[in-house]
Specification:
Length: 189
């Protein structure tokens, strides 16, 4: 019979849910709910008068380029992650325990780094609010009629969510460069 020699910490981080920070997940959920509430308020105040669609407001060509760039970036990140740190939920890394630990460590040891990264952190925290808002407010035809990806709900959401994902990824990369790593850590998480 083989005995399990893992410590509690190793067991916790061995499962996908064990790697996630409850505080970060809660904060993200609360911000998403705030956004959904803001979207509901926007939707409730919608106008009955349909806004005319103006040519050139959909920005599909730009978003097709951004989609290709985003897919290339995602593929490169997945290949790098597999090569350097193995498999894992790297897309959820900003919500992970390691990221929360790095944030606390930076706050204690080098708060100036957080001050420098404050715009990126604020934008990253705003992302779930904006995503939640668009989820409900986008049901108003006027909200999406001249939006990027409009005039349809699905088109506008695809473009807005692509923008949100790329902005969030950029913020995460910037914060990864700024946040301190524990002494034992050698690779980004």
């Amino acid at each position: 019979m083989r005995m399990n020699t893992r410590t509690t910490t190793e067991t916790d981080t061995a499962t996908p849910t064990g790697r996630l920070s409850p505080a970060s997940l809660t904060l993200c959920a609360v911000l998403l709910i705030v956004g959904v509430g803001a979207g509901a308020i926007t939707f409730a105040g919608r106008s009955d008068v349909r806004e005319a669609v103006r040519p050139g407001t959909s920005a599909w060509p730009v978003h097709l380029v951004l989609a290709v760039v985003g897919l290339g970036w995602l593929t490169a990140a997945m290949l790098r992650r597999r090569r350097t740190a193995g498999a894992g939920l790297f897309l959820l890394a900003p919500l992970g325990r390691a990221a929360a630990q790095r944030l606390r460590l930076t706050l204690r040891q080098a708060p100036w780094r957080l001050l420098v990264g404050l715009p990126a952190l604020a934008l990253l925290l705003f992302t779930p609010v904006r995503v939640g808002e668009q989820l409900i407010a986008g049901l108003d035809p006027n909200f999406v009629s001249n939006a990027w990806g409009g005039p349809t709900y699905l088109g506008a959401m695809a473009c807005h969510y692509l923008d949100s994902a790329l902005i969030a990824a950029t913020c995460v990369v910037l914060l990864d460069l700024l946040l301190k790593r524990p002494a034992a850590a050698t690779r980004p998480v």
